[in-house]
Amino acid sequence: MKNKILANAYADEIKAEVTSTRKCLERVTENLYDYKPHPKSMAMGYLAVLVAEIPLWVAVMVEEGEIDLATFQHLQTKTTEALVGHFDENIKRAERALHNATDEALDGTFTLKSNGHVLYSSPMLESISSTINHWVHHRGQLTVYLRLNDIAVPSIYGPSADDNQFKQG
Asked: Sorting pLDDT into bands at 50, 70 and 90, what band is 166?
């Protein structure tokens, strides 16, 4: 049997983040896709798509060993239903890719490109870990956008200020 300890650990880490991430994405209202808290900030719709797509990055990293930013296809949507459906598909693909991977396969290198030009290469394991952290970071950013629009922030690692039992007053 091939060693799958690390592949399974990453799959478990992704699985642990799915429920709270899905709850955040479900709360993104279509009328706020163009919302930006600051002119230098990304639009809420773009951020939500990014949060929904990062699990796909993991799948592509494992399956292909590289991503080219110029050719990577992003979801173009303005509906929450399509956004959440895209997220669900990407989670399944990431889980499948990690389930099918061996630790030996994950010992390889990941390369990020733009128009075929190498931006950087790094060990696959390091890249997967960094990508999961990147995903969680952007989900946190999305919760700030929700809060700024008076949309209840779901519980993530514990109750949020919007959970009834923890409201002040």
From this structure: low
